[in-house]
């Protein structure tokens, strides 16, 4: 819809987060949520890491990203600083999103293995957790990338978010 609108919004970062929240919530909540809603599937996947896979992408896409979109749009307007396409801002977006997609995949693969070992083969919960440890290693690597992205966002928020005198100046003509 944005492309068809043929409008060029100057605030690239806010646009990334806005389009991102639509896409990621659709995949995380819409597709991954629906995928394990069917009773025939949920019978196996209920309360496993498959649930955590859906939970993370849905929460991130639907609630966290939209807040970042609103901040990225309103902060430049409120402070008068044109934070439209900064390197730290782009890094925050891409690192956190690639990290979260990686985390989702790690949760998903661990979840499918967990379902198979626990509910098909019949192993105990604790034994299965040991078998799927490697996926948690990948999870932590991706989570580190995710955290780095969030750190970039917070850094920029603190650095440029507080209005200084020049932004607060009242024009007297
Ligand atoms: C903003 C939207 C959504 C968010 C933030 C969200 C988040 C979550 C979270 C955190 C859980 C885990 C709950 C727990 O630990 O007990 C969960 C479970 C579940 N969600 Fe969503 N969800 C969303 C939308 C959807 C949609 C649209 C569907 C289906 C079309 C769906 C289907 C499910 C199902 C079936 C479960 C239970 C999984 C199980 O049996 O273990 N969700 N969701
Ligand atoms: C550093 C990044 C993160 C790591 C390493 C991480 C890891 C985890 C792990 C290991 C679980 C337990 C899963 C289970 O055993 O069922 C969990 C649960 C959960 N996390 Fe995260 N998480 C991270 C970030 C987030 C973010 C950003 C959100 C929301 C925006 C979130 C929302 C949740 C929710 C709602 C649950 C409960 C889900 C359920 O019961 O299935 N997490 N997380």
DSSP strand (E) fraction?
under 5%
**Biggest sheet, in brief?**
none
Q: Compute the number of strand runs.
A: 0
In the CATH hierarchy, the third-tier topology is known as Four Helix Bundle (Hemerythrin (Met), subunit A)
Number of domains: 1
Count of helical segments? Answer: 8
Give the CA-based shape: elongated
N-C termini distance:
43 Å
Oligomer: single chain
Primary descriptors:
173 residues, mainly alpha, Four Helix Bundle (Hemerythrin (Met), subunit A), binds protoporphyrin IX containing FE
Question: What do these coordinates show?
Answer:
This protein has 173 residues and is mainly alpha-helical. It has helices at residues 2-5, 12-35, 39-45, 49-79, 87-121, 125-131, 133-161, 165-168. The longest helix has 35 residues, at 87-121. It is elongated and about 75 Å long. The termini are far apart. The structure holds protoporphyrin IX containing FE (2 copies).
